[in-house]
Amino acid sequence: MKQVLFVALGLAMLSLGCQPTVDEVCEDLGECNEFDANDCLTDGNKLQSNAESRGCEDAFEEYIDCVADAVCSYRQVCHAERSALESCAGSFPQ
User: Fold this and answer.
1) Cβ neighbours for 92, distance < 8 A, ≥ 6 positions apart
2) What is the pLDDT of residues 16-49, one digit of tens each?
3) What is the pLDDT of residue 19?
4) Smallest Cα–Cα separation from 57: which of 25, 92, 85, 86?
5) CA of 83: how far to CAs of 25, 39, 41, 53, 89, in Å?
6) Cβ neighbours of residue 52 under 8 Å, at least 6 residues apart?
7) What is the pLDDT of residues 73-91, one digit of tens each?
């Protein structure tokens, strides 16, 4: 019985903690040359808010997942995800 409880708890924790946050992604991107983590936080939070208000959560999650995986090369790698998010949520913050 205890083993089943631990497995269920572990699966629940995995499902809650899999999506990277804007804070986590910006912290990782802060290691890249010519990158301002503070601007990233401001813009990322605005982008997330715009996406949520327009029902574009899935597109936002796909984009932030791509950026989290690509880190410093996200500008070259995440074109499709960015385009999909812009199509849904509007242009990115300047």
Assistant:
1) 43, 47, 82, 86
2) 457 899 999 999 988 888 778 889 999 999 999 9
3) 85
4) 85
5) 19, 21, 20, 18, 10
6) 60
7) 999 999 999 999 999 999 8
> CB–CB of 50/86 below 8 Å?
no
The pLDDT of residue 65 is above 90: yes
Tokens of 67: 């950026």
Cα separation, 8 vs 12, in Å, equals: 6
Q: Please report, as a single letter, which amino acid is at residue 76.
A: Q
- CA 55-94-65 angle, 5° bins: 50
Token pair, residue 1, equals 């019985």
